[in-house]
Amino acid sequence: MTFQLERRVVVITGATGGLGQALVAAFLKTGAVVVALGRDQVKLAHLADVSQYRLYYAQLDFSDASAIQQTLKRIERRLGPIAVFVNNAGIGYFDTALSLTAAQQQAMIQLNEASLMTFCQQVGRLMVPRQAGMIVNVASQAGKIATPKASVYAASKAAVIAYSNALRLELASAHIHILTVNPGPIATPFLTQADPTGHYAQAVAKFALTPTQLANEIVHAVVTQQRELNRPRFMNLAALGYQLAPRLADWLAQQPVFNRK
Ligand SMILES: NC(=O)c1ccc[n+]([C@@H]2O[C@H](COP(=O)([O-])OP(=O)(O)OC[C@H]3O[C@@H](n4cnc5c(N)ncnc54)[C@H](OP(=O)(O)O)[C@@H]3O)[C@@H](O)[C@H]2O)c1
């Protein structure tokens, strides 16, 4: 069974970022009615201006649960039922657990976990009475294999994976599908935001995913109603090994291919 996107409402958070912009373009190409959510009105307006197709957008504070509720209701009143909701916004600060500032730690936990859960809860409540919908949660391979300098980021993404697994089971009887996306490094501004020295961006440059290709794969995973999308595949194989042989995995996690921070 495939999920039809033409003229259906697709809402994307973090739409002004690297993967978010690519997702906006990929979903617009399917004929979906796309709504970009972000915190920065100027960036959102610019995105809509340069978009090849009509793009709707809304600015809100992602840490404000009532703003989230009102925004989702407003979207549905104006455009119709939300068919797909993509929790893409996320932030990373790569530093040792003992060196991260309280503000950096809180920012990752708030956006990557708490806001995502609030969006899922609010959009889930709208979808359940209709017995239809799809929620896409962008986690990370970091949520499967934690490496040095990514303790809090990895923990926040592991939380997304666990939360999505439970939500999938809870909402299955309401015919709401949950897709978890676990990318390895993607060539976006995230890399230098996480490590402003540029060291991480340089270290992963050779195998970083391109946002456009990943966005197209996410759209395909939505249409074909996949459970999980893991890219690059070799990282997911390593994550399986991590479960089977944790000591070996600890060693592997310190090898240059995984420990790039
Ligand atoms: N890039 C990678 O290597 C990588 C790897 C695995 C997973 N991921 C995940 O992929 C997703 C997309 O990341 P990306 O690579 O596209 O990163 P990005 O280019 O840095 O974009 C991040 C997006 O999140 C938004 N954002 C940041 N802080 C926010 C806040 N407090 N409230 C609301 N929005 C906020 C940004 O908005 P502004 O434009 O306003 O700043 C931007 O739209 C994230 O969940 C990330 O964790 C990324």
TrEMBL record:
Say which domain of life the source belongs to. Bacteria
Does the record carry Oxidoreductase as a key word? yes
GO CC field: membrane
Gene3D superfamilies hit by this protein: NAD(P)-binding Rossmann-like Domain (3.40.50.720)
State the UniProt keywords alphabetically: Oxidoreductase
* SUPFAM superfamilies reported in the protein's UniProt record: NAD(P)-binding Rossmann-fold domains
Q: Does the keyword Oxidoreductase apply?
A: yes
GO molecular function terms listed in the Swiss-Prot or TrEMBL record: oxidoreductase activity
In terms of InterPro entries, this protein maps to: NAD(P)-bd_dom_sf (IPR036291), Sc_DH/Rdtase_CS (IPR020904), SDR_fam (IPR002347)
Pfam families on file: adh_short
Give the family, as the similarity comment puts it: Belongs to the short-chain dehydrogenases/reductases (SDR) family.
Identify the PANTHER family for this entry. DEHYDROGENASE/REDUCTASE SDR FAMILY MEMBER 7B, DEHYDROGENASE_REDUCTASE SDR FAMILY MEMBER 7B
Would you tell me the protein name for this molecule?
Short chain dehydrogenase
* Organism encoding this protein: Loigolactobacillus bifermentans DSM 20003
